[in-house]
Specification:
The complex is a heterodimer of chains A (255) and B (303).
Chain A: H1 2-9, E1 11-14, H2 32-36, E2 48-51, H3 55-61, H4 72-102, E3 108-113, H5 121-133, E4 140-145, H6 150-166, H7 177-182, H8 185-190, E5 198-201, E6 220-223, H9 233-244
Parallel strand pairs in A: 2-5, 3-4, 5-6
Antiparallel strand pairs in A: 1-2, 1-4
Chain B: H1 14-43, E1 51-55, H2 59-65, H3 70-90, E2 95-99, H4 110-129, H5 132-137, E3 140-144, H6 152-165, E4 172-176, H7 181-206, H8 210-218, H9 223-228, E5 240-243, E6 262-264, H10 275-302
Parallel strand pairs in B: 1-2, 1-5, 2-4, 3-4, 5-6
The chains are: A alpha/beta (255), B alpha/beta (303).
Chain lengths: 255, 303
């Protein structure tokens, strides 16, 4: 259940900060690990989304969870405690790392997306502060999706557009894909990079669970059996390698 | 498929040899049928999907590997589609959806688009003229997509086929053409906004306090409202989405509807997709079923 909830509430997206740009003198040399594994730096994904699934199963496999949990009532209580624990953990993680993100050489900008009305007050405050502190960074964007759902995000966008229609600012037939995309939370955070090139889901679950529903229309999906706590650099390089072996056509054909 | 049964004695006469071949083929076909039914009966002990969606990828590559024309690859693909439809019907799958043509595909070479449109028109007209397949499975056929983008003959044929099968109550076969999930979602948003505006105008006509009515109506737009305006309204979400030829992406197919769908990407190209691949797909689904169900139930509780 923990892994299930975690996959629904904690999603991290990251723009790799070592992409080479043609014609730019300030190109950053790729790390050795990349060069050694045969990954081509010129065709790395710009936006990687991760569904970090499998934490509970990892804990269970190591005997770190209590074995008995079959009563419905106890499960319901566990679920509430689990949610509270996760919210606290997310808040602590942001607070502990924001100073490091803020430092110019790291250049990490934090965005927290999702339904803020479901976050505790303290998390709302921490999220706002982190976003404010890292506002001027641009090297790498870290998006944390908390209490997020792709359908919810689209409903919010629909409500915003309906409001404009009712205010006579717009006719329903004028609404097109770019207008709707512009109302999504990820658009405010990542602009033209809203759509992930690669979506990684760990623990062997082969489904999207409502994550970046609109934005992942053309994303390459990578499913791995590795549980999230075991997903390290080697596994990530494997995902990148798999990404580079794919032919992306976007509905058209290559010659 | 039942073959003919005749008794004969072997001889050097080619006609008799051919009859032998027919007998052997007939007996083999019957044995195949029997084995298939047994396998389906065994599979049915586990949870069976009600709705399977297919992204029929690989027709062109199939044609290339076999050095045949592109159009021929699509034709073989169509035969594979009908075969899969019949197998799914035998397995008790109630809803089949296929990604026949994406709106993005219009950007392809015009001659390929033209030949695809001609093939679709030909096949739709065949189904209209020879209703044996449709009648056998009491099939209701839907076309999901922006039909206005189709040329008139294809559009009219599609509308005629939809109308003539609208009353059928058996298998529901939905053909997505020309379709994009993002277009479908935008279309649903348009309709919801237009609906809300109309409701507001009606309320405003009968009520002086327009501002209060505006706020009340606006805050009620929900997932259910958008659901109602999707092309797939009334149809359950797919249990399995199968994309052939090994590609692992949805390519703008049923993004709204596939939250809990089990995504599969078998290696065979679409024309090679056969009964055994379908069986394997269902076995994988059955393996993942407990976790899928748990996720669905948890999501329902949280709504």
């Amino acid at each position: 259940m923990l892994s299930n909830f975690l996959s629904r509430t904690i999603h991290r997206t990251r723009l790799p900060d070592y992409r080479l740009q043609a014609g730019t003198d300030a190109a950053v040399a790729p790390p050795d690990a990349l060069a050694q594994s045969g990954i081509r730096p010129e065709s790395l994904p710009r936006h990687v989304a991760v569904v970090p699934d499998g934490n509970r199963r990892w804990a269970q496999a190591r005997g770190l969870l209590t074995p008995d949990g079959h009563e419905v009532g106890r499960r319901a209580l566990e679920h509430t405690m689990e949610v509270d624990y996760l919210m606290g953990m997310i808040e602590r993680t942001i607070r502990e790392n924001v100073d490091e993100y803020e430092r110019r050489e790291n250049g990490i900008r934090v965005h927290v997306i999702g339904d803020p009305s479901r976050w505790p007050e303290s998390l709302q405050k921490t999220a706002r502060e982190a976003e404010e502190k890292t506002r001027n960074n641009s090297k790498l964007h870290l998006m944390l999706a908390t209490c997020y759902s792709g359908r919810w995000e689209l409903v919010q966008a629909c409500r915003a557009l309906a409001h404009k229609v009712q205010g006579n600012l717009l006719r329903p037939e004028d609404i097109d894909e770019s207008m709707l995309a512009g109302e999504l939370q990820t658009s405010a955070a990542a602009g033209e990079f809203s759509c992930p090139d690669l979506v990684i889901r760990t623990s062997g679950e082969q489904r999207l669970s409502n994550f970046l529903l609109w934005q992942s229309a053309y994303s390459e999906l990578y499913f791995t059996d590795t549980l999230w706590p075991d997903f390290g650099e080697a596994e990530y390089l494997q995902a990148l390698s798999s990404f580079q072996s794919r032919e992306r056509r976007f509905g058209q054909r290559t010659a | 498929m039942a073959g003919s049964r005749t008794s004969c004695s072997p001889s050097a006469d080619p006609k008799v040899e051919k009859t032998d071949e027919v007998v052997t083929t007939g007996v083999l076909a019957s044995l195949q049928n029997f084995l298939r039914k047994c396998l389906i009966a065994v599979l049915s002990y586990g949870p069976m999907p009600k709705h399977i969606a297919f992204i029929m990828d690989g027709n062109r590559r199939y044609a290339k590997f076999r050095s045949i024309q592109q159009g021929a690859g699509h034709r073989v693909g169509f035969s594979a589609l009908i075969a899969s439809l019949m197998y799914c019907y035998e397995m008790g799958v109630k809803y089949i959806t296929v990604y026949a043509f994406s709106i993005d595909n219009f950007k392809r070479d015009p001659s390929e688009v033209q030949s695809l449109m001609e093939l679709m028109e030909e096949k739709i007209n065949e189904l209209l003229d020879n209703r044996s397949v449709i009648n056998k499975i009491n099939c209701k056929i839907n076309f999901w997509g922006n039909l206005d983008l189709l040329c008139e003959p294809v559009r009219l044929a599609a509308q005629k086929l939809m109308a003539s099968t609208a009353g059928n109550t058996g298998l529901v076969f939905s053909v997505c053409m020309p379709y994009n999930s993002t277009s479908e979602i935008v279309n649903a948003v348009n309709e919801v906004c237009a609906e809300r505006r109309e409701m507001l105008q009606i309320e405003h006509a009968g009520d002086c306090n327009g501002y209060a009515a505006n706020n009340g109506v606006h805050s009620e737009i929900s997932v259910a409202d958008l659901d109602r305006h999707m092309y797939s309204a009334g149809c359950p979400d797919p249990d399995i989405v199968i994309r052939t030829s090994g590609e692992t992406r949805l390519s703008n197919f049923l993004l709204w509807q596939t939250t809990f769908s089990h995504l599969q990407n078998p290696d065979p190209l679409w024309p090679e997709f056969s009964f055994r691949h379908l069986v394997w797909a269902i076995l994988q689904y059955q393996r993942a079923y407990p976790y899928l169900e748990q996720s669905r139930n948890l999501a329902k509780k949280q709504m």
